[in-house]
Description:
transmembrane helix, signal, glycoprotein, endosome, 2 domains, Lamp2-like_TM, 419 residues
Amino acid sequence: MAAPGGARRQPLLLLLLAGFLHSASAVFTVRDVNGTACIMANFSATFLTNYNTKSGFKNVSFDLPSNAKVLNSSSCGKENASDPTLMIAFGGGHTLTLNFTRNATRYSVQMMSFVYNLADTQIFPNASSKEIKTVESITDIMADINKKYRCVSSNQIHMNNVTVTFRDATIQAYLSNNSFSKEETRCEQDEPFPTVLPTSYHPSPSPPHPSPSPIPESPSVYKYNVSGANGTCLLASMGLQLNITYKKKDGTAVTRVFNINPNKTHVSGSCTDQLVTLELQSESSTFLVFQFGMNASSSRFFLQEIQLNTTLPDARDPNFRAANSSLRALQATMGNSYKCNAEEHIWVTEAFSVNVFKVWVQAFQVEGDKFGSVEECQLDENNMLIPIAVGGALAGLVLIVLIAYLIGRKRSHAGYQTI
């Protein structure tokens, strides 16, 4: 039964995150015919997508505005017990919808959809189409019944070519007392991540050992670049290989290795003062994101986050997601580039890692679309030390033999006297 909805908004709170301002937080409420709240949501959100213009694809990022409204088509569901829906409208015909579901112990945003109107010239200037597009995806937003979902960290939901980033989110459905519960279920992003080991290290094995899949050939090395309003912000040349451990439908664990084929991958990204994003979407429904951050005090850039969203047809849970935003890989001084000919192994989670081949990368300060001075990785330096050490040992051995020969020859001459 459809119910009228309304929104109560608190004063704007400007969130300063990662060094730049994001959208203001707002409270959205859905009520039943008796005026009882069944859904409350308080969050800020940023949308990142691309669209086609006469001059090619263009990336655009925009925030959920403070004047966004809850639509009357929002609903508390049948008897306020099943399938409530929050629909938020803003701008020139854009709608964000959160569809909730529950079981005996938990509720979740089972499906999120976003409808955007390319005819909105304020957000999509010079769009070659005036279409209304719809994208959707399952989410990891879930909490225990009678508890609010709480996530201070950024939580990104990928829906085809649209990425929605939620920040400082408090969401609750199936409310029992017209307000947020005092108890909460924290999101995975807020919890401490497993210790991130340095690249080239492997975690301790834990039984049962998953069955490895045949290792494919090394992936093709491809040059990626991301540009923004101020020019190129990322140059990256590398081959990419994914390692995913999961349970098959029969319960057995398996590790599969996938190469990223650049010829079948759509490349996009975005640039800000504090964050550079490279997005790779393949034909096989694999969405891979690399985010580079920077440390202003040390003047260094680094790979700080990897996200993966893919489909595994033979898995017990076909929708595989993994993310880690506390990485410190591929580091170099701002203005310089990071290069590594050796294969690097970057652990993202216990179930997902990335092999990077022949990487050469530079983020933020890119001059003239060319790589800056090279800072070589420790693996390459170690690989150089081995032949140097072997060469030094051989040279030392030759010197010892030569000295021994000369001493022996001198003693031999000393044994003879002239008559």
